[in-house]
Amino acid sequence: MSTTAAQGFVAAGVTAGIKASGRPDLALVVNTGPDKVCAAVYTSNRFQAAPVLWSKGVTASGVLDAVVLNSGGANACTGADGLADSKATAQLVASAIGTTPDRVAVCSTGLIGVRLPMDAITRGVSIAAETLDAQGGSDAAQAIMTTDTVPKTAVESVDGWTVGGMAKGAGMLAPALATMLVVVTTDAVLTAAEADAALREATRLTFDRTDSDGCMSTNDTVILMASGASGVRPSTEAFTEALTAVCGDLASQLLADAEGAAHDIAIHVEKAATEDDALDVARCIARSNLFKCAVFGNDPNWGRVLAAAGTSKATFDPDAVSVSFNGVEVFTSGGLGADRSLVDLKSSRDVDVTVDLAAGDAYATVWTNDLTYDYVKENAEYSS
Amino acid sequence: MSTTAAQGFVAAGVTAGIKASGRPDLALVVNTGPDKVCAAVYTSNRFQAAPVLWSKGVTASGVLDAVVLNSGGANACTGADGLADSKATAQLVASAIGTTPDRVAVCSTGLIGVRLPMDAITRGVSIAAETLDAQGGSDAAQAIMTTDTVPKTAVESVDGWTVGGMAKGAGMLAPALATMLVVVTTDAVLTAAEADAALREATRLTFDRTDSDGCMSTNDTVILMASGASGVRPSTEAFTEALTAVCGDLASQLLADAEGAAHDIAIHVEKAATEDDALDVARCIARSNLFKCAVFGNDPNWGRVLAAAGTSKATFDPDAVSVSFNGVEVFTSGGLGADRSLVDLKSSRDVDVTVDLAAGDAYATVWTNDLTYDYVKENAEYSS
After folding, report:
1. B308 and A215 in contact by Cβ < 8 A?
2. Which of A18, A93, B44, B243 has the fewest CB atoms found within 10 Å of its own CB?
3. What percentage of chain A exceeds 90 in pLDDT?
4. How far is B136 from chain A (nearest CA, A)?
5. Architecture in CATH of A2-256
6. Is residue B50 classed as helix, strand or coil in its secondary structure?
7. Are B294 and A383 in contact (CB under 8 A)?
8. 3-state secondary structure of B347
9. Least confident span in A29-33, B62-66, B149-153
């Protein structure tokens, strides 16, 4: 049910004709209220796509009526013309649903450097506005797919209120967000400040720690809309927890569908001096191509884990560090541990790597995947 | 002629029996004087192999008689026992050539986390000491190969003095040095301080800007030995220039032999506010797996170049940036440039990517290669 699981939302997913394949390529999610609260986070890439520039301006107010999303074109690196296209898209939606463009966010995904076909966008917005439905969340999740093999949706229901969302993305996933578009809705009663704080915390712990290939996109967007339609005002903690659960669920679906991956890898760094240290070490490991190739080869290569950890700036004593693969400690307190043949990486897609820094009590997890022939194939043959 | 091109050096490369393959695996380079000057730079990885820890202590004095190098085992992450093995190796060499162990550097390359077979090392040092020869540089360069497909040597002769060197390395090449062992010799007359300054400048501009896969090794070592045997004292500038030429030549050979690469890529960043900015942008691009896959697919994907540049902290206006592939400006001052079909990446291994930041007068070049099926294959199947 994705973005229409919560009360107060209608959605649609339609074929506008942007994609040559004729598959659905335009989604619309509308908040019918009574509240129109929003929060959003965006890519920190210095090259920001036109829809990101547009939506940043729009969502800064904390008020939003709708999000329109297209696949089939990223509208990135398209200059002033591209920005005008994003604004025109918002205007089309505003006219169709009876609001003003400054309350409509726009998201785009697909090839960089190509202008959007505005005739198709115009047609798509018109069809989408006519088919908006309280059951339309699944169609919307379908329409934002690019190289995704499955739509990604998640829902958490808690004490009379609900958080639900959809995401697209498969590769180009990196810290500080990925090539992903995410729309999460809730019928909880929230202020814009509460929505913003909860979204920042939820993304910090989920999407920001999902690193498929270290490559950060120009279009990443996560938008939260709150309708207040449940009439329930949850505690900050309860809402943040539910939102984090939905975002975590979506993030794990993004990684599981990452281009060409054969293993899903969780890198846990424990007993770090600080959480930042734990994160630094985990990211260094998640970005090591040599480590990622070893996992593809089912090799619990702790030497490559250490070599990657050794490039971090974290505080630790190399002679005190331990490394485990799937619970088998293959490197213990700076020396050889259990034999690597005891580790089985073949039986499951899931790989757990735990690094004990013996430097404190902080910890962090980063999720990544292995580096495979199919990753190279998809990214050598598919332009983005 | 590699390390024996300069006067005052003898070398050997022999089969000690460390490698199961029976190929040469131990090299010895000895400075016969009259001067015994040295300088060295090492990996900045926090996990430093035993031979790095040993050699750092030895070369700090600026005086060195010999370097012994083995392939077939990295002696990394082997703890106190591994350090004792490196010291024992230096002692064997010292006894054989009539000096003290604190004047013998040790380098090792191969699998991490495995102790060296000291009986084979003992035998190898003995044979090498007996076969030391003023023509032995080629044999030494052969004996340090691991996944290298060719030995790497370079020589520059200038006004009566010579700089020559050898290197091993094929992949795991990254900033702040790579998995590489390099020994450079010269018969120029130099002080230790002059040798140190020249080596730091030469490596800063060459090996430090060679980034095959962003992965930094635990064993990287570059050692310069000066015999003074030519009797000529070159100017600092002339010596640094010749040394930089030899290091640059060796670095380009390392990249050309990088595991599985199909293209050699030079990333030039121009008109940066500072050299550090130029380097930051070039490194971000060199480490983008998406960009590297695109080059493998012969796709001049400037969108991926921009997305990678956009993750840097360099000063620039995204709307003023231009990107060229092999001289064809496909992105001009923040907007679409020439059609990408005008770029030919198929006819040559060499790819030039130039990014104009329009922010100043500084520039830097980083050399890398593409990401291919064969890179994944070699690094999934070969443990290191």
Report:
1. yes
2. B44
3. 67
4. 33
5. 4-Layer Sandwich (3.60)
6. helix
7. yes
8. coil
9. B149-153
B118 touches chain A (CB under 8 A): no
The pairing of strands B66-71 and B104-109 is: parallel
Residue with tokens 């690193």: A211
Residue A373 has pLDDT above 60, yes or no: yes
**What are A317's two structure tokens?**
């004593």
Residues with Cβ within 8 Å of A50's Cβ and at least 6 positions away in sequence, in order, are A75, A76, A78, A82, A83, A85, A86, A108
Q: Which residues partner with A268 through β-bridges?
A: A354, A365
At residue A383, the pLDDT reads 57
Q: Which CATH superfamily is domain A264-381 in?
A: ArgJ beta chain, C-terminal domain (3.10.20.340)
Nearest to A310 among B46, B334, B384 (CB): B46
Q: How many residues would you count in chain A?
A: 384
Q: What residues contact B84, with CB distance under 8 A and at least 6 apart?
A: none
Concerning whether A179 is annotated as a catalytic residue, the answer is: yes
- Structural contact between residues A352 and A268, judged by C-beta atoms closer than 8 angstroms: yes
Residue A116 CA to residue A86 CA, distance in Å, equals 9
Of B159, B2, B167, nearest in space to B69 by CA? B167
Q: Among candidates B69, B56, B57, B74, which has minimal Cα distance to B24? A: B69
Token representation of residue A223: 């938008």
Cβ-defined contact of A77 to B303 (cutoff 8 Å): yes
> Range(s) for CATH 3.60.70.12 in chain A?
2-256
Please compute the mean of the pLDDT values over residues A194-219 and round it to a whole number: 84
C-alpha distances in angstroms, B320 versus A246, B304, B316, B334, B361? 39, 17, 8, 5, 15
Contact B217, B45 (CB under 8 A): yes
**Nearest CA-CA distance, residue B21 and chain A, Å:** 22
Residue A20: which residues within 8 A CB-CB, separation 6 or more?
none
> Tokens in use for A159?
């004490």
Q: Given CB atoms, is B33 within the 8 Å cutoff of chain A?
A: no
Phi-psi region of B115 (alpha: psi -120 to 50; beta: other; left: phi over 0): beta
Q: Which pLDDT score, from 0 to 100, does residue A171 have?
A: 46
Q: Are A202 and A46 in contact (CB under 8 A)?
A: no
| Interchain pair A294, B379: CB under 8 A | yes
Residues of B in contact with A312 (CB under 8 A): 46
Contact of B300 with B345, CB cutoff 8 Å: yes
Q: CA–CA separation, B5 vs B134, rounded Å?
A: 8
Does the pLDDT value for residue B142 go beyond 80? yes
- Report the complex ipTM: 0.79
Q: Tell whether B338 is within 8 A of chain A (Cβ).
A: no
pLDDT score recorded for residue B382 = 61
Residues 352-371, chain B, touching A (beta carbon < 8 A): 371
Which residue in A162, A179, A186, A210 is the catalytic one?
A179
Rounded to 5°, the CA angle A212-A216-A220 comes to 105
Q: Which segments of chain A belong to CATH 3.10.20.340?
A: 264-381
Q: pLDDT tens across B105-138, in order?
A: 999 988 888 899 999 999 999 999 999 999 999 9
Strand order in the sheet with B104-109: B9-14, B26-31, B66-71, B104-109
Bond preceding residue A117 cis, omega within 30 of 0? no
